[in-house]
Structures are given as structure tokens and as C-alpha cells.
TrEMBL record:
Record-stated family: Belongs to the sulfur carrier protein TusA family.
InterPro entries for the chain: TusA-like (IPR001455), TusA-like_sf (IPR036868)
Sections of the chain in a coiled coil: none
Organism superkingdom: Bacteria
A UniProt-annotated Pfam family: TusA
Annotated protein name in UniProt: Predicted redox protein, regulator of disulfide bond formation
Gene3D superfamilies: TusA-like domain
Taxonomic source organism: Saccharomonospora viridis (strain ATCC 15386 / DSM 43017 / JCM 3036 / CCUG 5913 / NBRC 12207 / NCIMB 9602 / P101) (Thermoactinomyces viridis)
Domain UPF0033: 19-43
Amino acid sequence: MAEAARERVSQSVEADYRLDIRGEVCPYPVIYSLEALASMEAGQVLEVVADCPQSFRNVPEEAVKHGYQLVREPERNGTDLRFLLRVP
């Protein structure tokens, strides 16, 4: 029951901006994500889609280090990685 409720909440988060950086290798997914977040306003959510395996850990880790919030755990769908990051 709790898992179903969590799933509904996580699906209800909508991104204000989407950054598709598939094809870029690290460190570029981190760099581009941080640049995009820096240009956004408080409360806005950025969806990042990448396919560099290292970005699965690096993008959320660096975003949190820079003060941004990870809206939910990173998702992996085949080679695509998806992150939702919020500007506090």
C-alpha cells in the first residue's frame, strides 16, 4: 500500500524543464545539469535524461553537493537514465 502511494506521488512530479543529454559522456552530463539548474528559479524541477553510465551516480551526487534536491531516486530504463532535480 505504501509503495503504491509513493509511486503515485513520484509520478505526479512534473518537470519545468527537460535536458536530454544522451550521447554526452562524463563529466558533461554533470556540467550541463548544473548549468541548467543555475539558470532556474526556486521550486522549479529539471528532468535530466542521460545515457552515460557514470552519470547514474555523478549527476545526483554533484547536484546535491551544490545544494539542489533530488526529487526521487534516479531511474534506469535500458540505457536511458532519468533524474528529477529541484532548485531549493
